[in-house]
Amino acid sequence: MSDQKPSRRDILRPLHLLAIALGCGVFATVVTLVSTGAFTLRVNTAIANGTYEGMTPVALGLVVGGGVFIVTLLLLAMLMLAVDPADVTKTVDRPVLYDPEAEKAADPREQRKGPADGVE
Hints:
Layout (H helix, E strand, L loop, with lengths): L7 H4 L2 H22 L5 H9 L7 H25 L18 H7 L14
Helix pairs in contact: 2-4
């Protein structure tokens, strides 16, 4: 395994963000198509005969998938705004939400002085 750590910029490229949003949109489309019965004979026969009322399952799936794609893309863009531009070039060598104070407290070399040491 390589010791080279990827930077945050390498991890979150715009094409990757678009691919994530597209995957979410496709997933929502497939779930909508399956849940509305787009692959059943009864629904397809009603659409062919012209007796199906309302939006067809394929049109509804495309609307839902497009909406989920746009919402996911906007949410990911908003989350990218939370990243400090100075941190983009830094390498990620620890968990992002890791508390650095906990690391100092867990360090056995750092001895805490307490009431026994005469410090209160």
